[in-house]
């Protein structure tokens, strides 16, 4: 397994302006000694940097780009909005190719507005009404990705996500039915919770879909000094990973507040589990 870090892990620092994209790369390479990085559209858009210059810097720092992540929503009923979302994903597929990354992370969407929309939670649409449109959009983007040699990895997402259960994941894999389409398994995504107040974790869902994983989001919900996470059972998760012989990237998504202290500690604990 390869170990990486998503820019999302430092989203508080990015929002506060205490870190920029180049400093993030430097930390991942020099301080954390990782294998790769995952770059989110949110942070790349805000960086306002030449992507070729950034790619050059990442490569010279000895890192791979495991994935580019786009924040899309195919859960709208509006055909105009769906067309905009498809165009967004197509644009980021082109950017993924420019960076030389093999994978783009995508979302299926939500039952109406996305979490970053102002009206999220106030307007909802039945998933049965938006599912066909979502599949149609996903297929179009997968075809576009295939033409450019980019795989689409769908993330299972809690909190009203259209794909947040094992059944949802199996259904979308069957509906899209393409070797250029797989999963970005979020270890906290197969859960029953509102944001991170976890009530039930479905580890069997991770185990039953692991063979379709193109990347894994190693979500840290509640970090501690002496354990990787106090909510998620990472002993069990590592057992699944080792038994399945997963060989892709574990991309850290850290949700703790003390990023500059907590992330190095968490990475050290993960490396210990990996025998590194």
Structural overview:
The chain is α/β, with parallel strands linked by helices and 276 residues long. The chain has a single domain, classed as TIM Barrel, CATH 3.20.20. Helix content is 43%, strand content 20%. The strands form two sheets. An eight-stranded parallel barrel has the order 1-2-3-4-5-6-9-10, surrounded by six helices. Helix 5 packs parallel to helix 6 (127-147) and helix 7 runs parallel beside helix 8. The longest helix is centred in the first third of the chain and has 21 residues, at 79-99. It is globular, with a radius of gyration of 18 Å. The termini are close together.
Radius of gyration: 18 Å
- What percentage of amino acids are in beta strands? 15-25%
Q: Structural class, from secondary structure content?
A: alpha/beta
**Total DSSP helices:** 10
- State the major sheet: 8 strands, parallel, barrel
What is the level 1 CATH name?
A: Alpha Beta
Give the count of structural domains. 1
Question: Could you list the spans in which at least 5 consecutive residues all have pLDDT below 50?
Answer: none
How does CATH name the architecture?
Alpha-Beta Barrel
Neighbour order of strands in the largest sheet: 1-2-3-4-5-6-9-10
N- to C-terminal distance: 11 Å
State the share of residues found in helices, binned by percent: 40-55%
Secondary-structure topology with pairs:
Blueprint: E1 2-6, H1 11-16, H2 21-31, E2 36-40, H3 41-47, H4 51-60, E3 64-69, H5 79-99, E4 103-106, H6 127-147, E5 151-155, H7 166-176, E6 181-186, E7 191-194, E8 197-201, H8 203-209, E9 213-220, H9 234-244, E10 249-254, H10 259-273
Parallel strand pairs: 1-2, 1-10, 2-3, 3-4, 4-5, 5-6, 6-9, 9-10
Antiparallel strand pairs: 7-8
Helix pairs in contact: 5-6, 7-8
